[in-house]
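help with these tokens:
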Amino acid sequence: MTPQTLYHHGSRAVQDLVGVRELADHVGRSVSDGIRPVAAAFLELRPMLVIGCADPAGAVWASLLTGEPGFVRATGPHQISVAGGLRRTDPLAPALAGEGVPVGTIALDPGTRRRVRLNGRARPTPRGLAIETDQVFSNCPKYIQKRGLLPGAMPGRPSAPRRGAKLTGDQRAFVAEADTFFLATVHARGADAGHRGGNPGFVRVPSPYEISWRDYPGNSMFLSLGNLATDPRAGLLFLDWRTGTTLQLTGTARTEYADDGSRTVRFTLSEAVETLGASPWSWTAPEYSPANPGQED
């Protein structure tokens, strides 16, 4: 895969604005359209996978898929299978019932601070989903909080989703205390799912309809911000790592570039979906990444 096929004009515009085009070209050489053995082995050990795409109405969401390790596995050099699929009440369930749906996915291992991103096209199967890969790559461990998976799935089933057009007081507090969330974005040729992390407080909630965060320096590819430069639709996924509750948000986002080189992303909410116990897994308290900027930043 070449930089010309990897990056569209939105990513190129952001790379040029920040002055990292050459670095982005270097990093982009690690992106493949196939699944290498080390990536296949990594995916097969994961108990969760985040997936992002647009729903039939055009809203972009990020959703959580979970299962016993092995529920995600490579079934060929250019395909993975995901057993089980999404609950029928998930905002993306109708979209993923179709053929050839552009999706972005990210598999995270908090225990080792490793992650693999896999973008492609999904189709339903009798067991769940199959995804044909267009892009497969790893990212650096920056801003990933270290957590350990506690043994055994938690009892009980997910609650019925609670939907709203604004964040409740409890939801605002939950987002403001988060150290991690996942970001889904789209472009004309596909979709992407990424990770954002920092010390608690790095996400700000100035109103029931607004969220903002500093965009910390990363791999210089600017896939997410490049997508937002051409299509403002975005989906955010917040996970309560202790209880398994998820908060899914859809809306639009824009990036502000300051004279000092810092960047702030401002998200405007269209709809929120909260599901208690959406994940059966519970994790230990976090060990914050040494790369996280301090609260004073």
The mean pLDDT is 95. The longest strand covers residues 263-275. The chain has one domain: 3-139+156-275. The two ends are 37 Å apart (CA to CA).
